[in-house]
Design goal:
Elements: E1 3-10, H1 22-25, E2 31-35, H2 43-56, E3 59-63, H3 81-101, E4 106-109, H4 113-121, H5 123-136, E5 141-145, H6 149-157, E6 160-166, H7 190-203, E7 205-207, E8 213-215, E9 220-223, H8 230-243, E10 247-248
Parallel strand pairs: 1-2, 1-9, 1-10, 2-3, 3-4, 4-5, 5-6, 6-9
Antiparallel strand pairs: 7-8
């Protein structure tokens, strides 16, 4: 039976501001990536999200991003590889302390937003992130965009990697995501997003905006938890994949 991991970015509330229905969505995903306080989240939110993840039995990962609360980590920052290394070590360390305190286990790391997108294309940044993950815990799985420099860097250093695809994003011919500031970057039609996932996980191809099918490796599918229909979409995708005969389980 073919298997696939469904992951979701979570713990992105901050102070009095609430984002996403994390607890409910956890019923329809197998891995969660928890914000570590740089782009979103705070210590109380981190602890609560870890507690929920342990209760629900989903795999727990760190979701390190740029120190940019106002921009939600989606604005590119020009940082050195040394800075990237330190940022990632710092954030993994923060979340892992909560995981340990709650009696859980961290399984993976997935960079967030602009940090993720830059690391997909810039080898030096990708290598710094992979080195940071490896140095903290070489058994952690590194999540990265399928076919990206981040996946290559993780494999090179000896990490286990998970090639990630996106349900609600369109793709370019080089396998990269369409930038968010470009029209049609986001797929808002639920059935269209589900169909894209099925094509990627069943056939190993994704259709680009130009209508060209390009090969893609899909080991984990990202569901964004901050959209207005996130819960309904997660449920629909989960149930559709089950009907298609997929075993839905965490990478580890």
């Amino acid at each position: 039976m073919a298997r696939i991991d469904l992951n979701c970015d979570m713990g992105e509330s901050f102070g009095i501001y609430r984002l996403g229905d994390d607890e409910a969505i956890m019923d329809y995903v197998t891995s969660v990536n928890i914000a570590c306080g740089f782009h979103a989240g705070d210590p109380l939110v981190m602890r609560k999200t870890v507690q929920m993840a342990i209760k629900k039995g989903v795999a727990i990962g760190a979701h390190p991003g740029f120190p940019d609360l106002l921009g939600f980590g989606r604005r590119a920052m020009r940082i050195t590889p040394d800075e990237a290394y330190a940022y990632v070590v710092y954030q993994i360390g923060a979340l892992s302390a909560f995981v340990q305190a709650e009696g859980g286990k961290m399984t993976h790391v997935k960079p967030h937003g602009a940090l993720y997108n830059l690391a997909a294309k810039e080898p030096s940044l990708a290598e710094a992130i992979a080195q940071a993950v490896y140095d903290v815990n070489p058994t952690l799985v590194l999540y990265g965009l399928a076919g990206s420099e981040l996946i290559a860097a993780g494999k090179k250093i000896g990490l286990r990697t998970a090639s990630e695809v996106f349900a609600d994003r369109t793709y370019q011919q080089d396998g990269s995501l369409t930038p968010r500031n470009v029209p049609q970057a986001l797929i808002t039609d639920e059935q269209e997003a589900v169909a894209q996932v099925i094509k990627m996980v069943s056939e190993g191809y994704v259709r680009t905006l130009e209508g060209i099918d390009v090969p893609i490796e899909a080991e984990t599918v990202c569901i964004h938890g901050d959209s207005s229909n996130a819960l309904a979409f997660a449920k629909t995708l989960y149930e559709t994949l089950q009907r298609e005969g997929f075993e839905i389980r965490a990478v580890v």
